[in-house]
Amino acid sequence: PETEPERDGLIDRSRLLAVAGRSRKTQIGLARQFDINDYPCPAGGCLLTDPIFSERLREFLKYRKIIDGDDVAKLKIGRHFRSAEGHKIIVARNEVECGMLQRLFQGQEHLLVPENFAGPTVWFEGEALIPSLQKMKKYSGNDKTIHPTVYHHWQDSKESILLNSDVKTES
To answer: Which phi and psi angles does 55 have, rounded to 5°?
Structure first.
């Protein structure tokens, strides 16, 4: 159907490109023709089509009805768990995700950062310190540091916690 700008004579449909489908070759060629080099990557799609992200979002919305940009960023990274009391725990999978969790930390929640051993950064909310330490220990692998210490960040404070054999990992 004819659009209002066409009816008003502002647009001539016969002069428009016939771009269709998922291929972006036509747009990339046009950008090259006009020497446009700085444009967003044509790959990707809606996050909601990602089954892992969709499940994380569905699970998140069972516990909280309001979601913001930082929540979405956290849902995209790490391994996600719930404590027995229903508190969210996120364990970073690599160095990049450790940095992302540290940048997303706002102080109302908790952050565990390995001080003297190789291990994941762990973000958690509520009263989930022990299960979060258990996850950290479980995903630290076989680090043989004698006295592994963790920085626990919360609000404006930072304390050191010894991650020792008293923290039992779950099976």
So the answer is: -65, -40
Please give the Cα distance from 132 to 111 (Å, whole number).
9
pLDDT in tens, 102-155: 999 988 899 999 888 888 999 999 888 888 888 888 888 766 777 788 888 888
The answer on pLDDT for 171 being more than 50 is no
Q: Considering only CA atoms, which of 157, 166, 109, 100 is closest in space to residue 134?
A: 166
Helices (H), 19-167: 25-33, 51-63, 69-75, 95-104, 129-139
> In Å, how far are 21, 83, 113, 116, 155 from 162, measured between CA atoms?
56, 21, 12, 10, 20
Burial class (CB in 10 A: 0-12, 13-18, 19+), 31: middle
Distance CA 59, CA 26 (A): 40
pTM for this one? Answer: 0.69
> What amino acid occupies position 18?
A
